[in-house]
Amino acid sequence: MQQVRPKKALGQHFLTDLDVARRIAATLDDFQGLPVVEVGPGMGVLTQFLLEKHPGLTVVEIDTESVAWLNGNMPSLKGRILEQDFLNLDLGELFHGEKMCVIGNYPYNISSQIFFHVLEWKDLVACCSGMLQKEVAERLAAKPGTKARGILSVLLQAWYDVEYLFTVNENVFNPPPKVKSGVVRLVRNSVTELGCDPAAFKNVVKTTFGQRRKTIRNSIRAILPPGVQMPDTPLTAMRPEQLSVDQFIELTNKIFPATR
Known about the structure:
- The structure is a single chain.
- The protein is α/β, with parallel strands linked by helices.
- The protein has two domains: about 10-190, Rossmann fold (3-Layer(aba) Sandwich), CATH 3.40.50; about 200-260, Orthogonal Bundle (Helicase, Ruva Protein, domain 3), CATH 1.10.8.100.
- The protein contains ten helices and nine strands.
- The strands form two sheets. Strands 4-3-2-5-6-9-7 form a seven-stranded mixed beta sheet, sandwiched between helices.
- The model has no long low-confidence stretch (mean pLDDT about 95).
């Protein structure tokens, strides 16, 4: 069967380096026994290595041409190829409420959305790893005080230990992207309760990073509840990228004291 044509509209850049694929698959070695779902398998370069250690692998692929290729070339996946959009997938139904791992060579154009979707299912996704645009990968793992730190950095790191693993050059893809790629791994931490209202926390994080050049004192004015004064804390003199997750939780409780 002929090769699948990479489609720009789907953000497809097919990995061609088997060693890189093997290294990405190995990011789940500490999670043997958990169900695994691969996002966007394409022509199965990563899939083949995942099947060696996770024979019950399920794959999610929106591209009809890729689905046909997988059906014709990877018979061991029969019955476990979901032809749909991962962003609309109910992960609670996928493995009947079991904890799982998510992995993939993620489409660049929706990689951030994929991680937001994983965050919605944080109590089921024990590990999420894979490859995405280097700039985005660095953002996910960015520590307080770094320019790369952003909304996803804080929201993910509240629930996951995030690690940037290695960089991948452009020349191991078809077609080659214009940017380098990075491989990350997210492992669910032990947090079960943030210590503040989760919706308020998300609101504070998004509001402050929405005006990241301003100090927090200036960016949060618009979301102060009626009757709540500007918090008297050194945190308001800082910019959002400087704050740790714990400091965002502290700030949230000062802004929304009634939601503690």
